[in-house]
Amino acid sequence: MGAFEEFNTRRQDLEHAYMKLTGVDGKPQFDKVYSYLTEFIKPFVKKDNILKIWNSEKSVWCDYAERKPSLLDRVKKHDKESVNRKPCEKSKNKDKSETI
Questions:
Q1: Judging by beta carbons within 10 Å of its beta carbon (0-12, 13-18, 19+), is residue 28 exposed, middle or buried?
Q2: Signed CA dihedral, 86, 88, 89, 91: sign only
Q3: Residues in the chain with pLDDT values less than 50
Q4: What string of H, E and C letters represents the secondary structure of the chain?
Q5: Rounded Cα distance, 40 and 30, in Å
Q6: In the prediction, which pLDDT does 73 show?
């Protein structure tokens, strides 16, 4: 993927090209876009192999282990618990109104 040399050394050219974009509703200021992208590409520039996840709300990289569990993580955990449960054992989360 390269070292993003052009991004780091040709800021004025990028800004010039960005300013030529017209007719874009809600187009943010170039400085905001450039600083956001600068933060976003840091691990790629450094060739950082540490597993991270991008927090778009805070515009920062976070360690993968510190992230909130995703829906997929919760489904996998549920499936794993279901496999380990005995066939006649009821689920702890099952609504009592469903039992006969």
A1: exposed
A2: positive
A3: 1
A4: CCCCHHHHHCHHHHHHHHHHCCCCCCCCCHHHHHHHHHHHHHHHHCCCCCCEEEECCCCEEEEHHHCCCCHHHHHHHHHHHHHHCCCCCCCCCCCHHHCC
A5: 15
A6: 72
Is residue 50 within 8 A of residue 63, CB to CB? The reply is yes
Q: Are 53 and 61 in contact (CB under 8 A)?
A: yes
Under 8 Å CB-to-CB from 59, ≥6 apart: which residues? 36, 39, 40
Q: How far is CA 20 from CA 24, 28, 30, 39, 55, in A?
A: 10, 13, 11, 24, 29
The pLDDT assigned to 62 comes to 86
* Residue keyed to tokens 């004025």: 12
Cα–Cα distance measured from residue 9 to residue 12, given in angstroms and rounded to the nearest whole number:
9
